[in-house]
Write a structure and sequence with these properties.
heterodimer, A: mainly alpha, 2 domains, 20 helices, 2 strands, B: mainly alpha, 67% helix, disordered N terminus
Chain lengths: 478, 243
Amino acid sequence: MLEFHWQAILILLPFAGAAGCFLWPQRAVPLGLFVASGIVICVIGAGWQLAELGTQRYAVGGWGAPLGIDLYTDGLSLLMLAVTALAGLGISIYSSGYFSHERARYFWPLWMFLWTALNALFLSADIFNLYVTLELLGLAAVALVALAGGADALSGAMRYLLVSLLGSLAYLLGVALLYHGFGSVDIAILAQRVEPSPVVWAAAGLMSAGLLLKTALFPLHFWLPPAHASAPAPVSALLSALVVKASFYILARLWLEIFPFAGPGPALLMGLLGAAAVLWGGVQALRQTRLKMLIAYSTVAQTGYLFLAFPLASVTGWTAALYMLLSHAAAKTAMFMAAGNILYFGGHDRIADLDRIVQRLPLTITAFALAGVSIMGLPPSGGFIAKWMLLEAAIRSGQWWWVGILIVGGLLSAAWAFKVIGYAFTRSEAPHDTRKIPVVMEWSALLMAMLAILLGLFAPWPLALMEIGSPFDREGSG
Amino acid sequence: MAREPGGEKIVNPNPMMSNGNNCQRLFRLLLGLLLAVLAAGLGYVLSSLPSPAPGLSKPVAEHLEASGVSNPVTAVLLNYRAYDTLLELGVLLLAPLGVWSLGVAARHREPLVDPVLDMLARLLVPMLILVAGYLLWAGAHAPGGAFQAGSVLAAAGVLLLLSGWWPGPAFSGLPLRVSLTAGPGVFLVAGVALMFAGGRMLEYPPPFAGALILLIEAAATWSIGITLAALFAGGRPVAGPHR
């Protein structure tokens, strides 16, 4: 079993799940849950293979790069697959209670396609294949946002579609320039051949701009809050926890492997934009009156932290950013699920009218508070470990000014989290009808929030996983 | 900024734009300037392009023998980089799925009774189907293949829809969904079967490569044709997809 095709199954299984859910909509929920558990098993299999045999290169079709397409697994891609599998399983369980029969018919195949795209993206070692996965990912994500129906969701989805296409096309133009210049689209081969020249700079600029747009780094975040806030709750969780991280992953791979010679200039720019995102996202989150909009702005802020890894440019810095990504995925999934529960229960998500949610949905508000602990970066959560490591990386590299951003960002998160929790205790002036909420929705939110906390207690495991194949060691600008 | 009459305010993502006309004009000017700089930069890069690096045409030609086809484009699409094509077929299934989730096809109330259109359809549709079949077969050694054949088949479908021939409820349930899924489905089954037969994912044994490619392309042609025609219909079928 050690030599088994785990990588290939990780892509084919959700693909087959998508086709199956589309063909037999009546069986979509059990089929989707089966695929979700199957993917978790495959990720464990791939992790075992990685731990025993080291990094894996899988030549699809048996041709091998440069003629064929390779799949590549190291600690970084395994970690992304694991985040996707855990958050995906949680969201699948949550969705089995959330959607009405009519919506579930479309949600499940779309979600399975999204999962296919994510797994394929994290495994790909080929920049053109990455473009194809981006296309699949973007289209599935847009259709999922539109699933909510209504004017807000449709206009949010439309804007998201246009942004996503623009980002993909900019990326594709960069791929074309690189292929023209160096005759390959395989990342490892390009890493050996690419040298600084105007073509390479143009390609790097185009690909980065496209991916930054998709990652919603400040000031390119304008499309994110409407799209993420108007989508159905499990979809908001998917988008914030996983989809924006996918384009960040490609960006990190490109800069670590193909363009490590870029020097401190572009890296500093990304770090500054990241810092601006932390501040702007935090302030905007504090100003929101709707819970889902607030959480969406917090995603803008939390994405900013990831980009601090570029100027810190050290193994610790990258590991910290990845740990931030991991704990944010868990915490944000829990938070959107909790918001979804509140919306499902009371029919609205106005923060000022939360109306004694503490007594009425105790599990949900506990989930929200625990996720808030991780997002603020309080011990013993995953967010704390990530910020601690960022702090360490900043001081060790002598760039102490980033520490200020960490502190202010944490305070802003604390401010909005306490504001929400405060309203959860008070009685609202306008009482409203409520409806009963499925048990799985409350428990899956709580379990995801506990995962975000547990990531702080069991940090050595994921940290050891990340080091397989030392994906961060190639950094040229030390 | 746009407001829905009577509806909720649309979220304004860019508050700068709502501060009157002047701001908007400045914004547009700035945007135009940025785009001009971008265009100039790209123009400079394109003019300074070095001669293209030796691409992959040599290895493509060298392995053509083992690929099962003699048309290099088909060899790349269906063999060397078949995995990309598999994902693209996924995109093609995803597209009608997304459209169907939005609403029901707005069918013309009454079929157009136009003798010229009717005659044309009767004449052209069989021809188009024949051309699609030829393109599919020719793809192995000449320009052609599943995507071209599928588009021609879709043209036949669009012509039928225009002349008022809409599929009945018997076809709009499971049979339609099977038609849409056939292309990626056969591809997927081939990929998995080859894996369990001892190869890697989508690794065709050279003696069977030609036949496998034809099988996959035939299913893909059917699916692509139905997909594009279904997209033209603009929504999910009215009767289905229940059952």
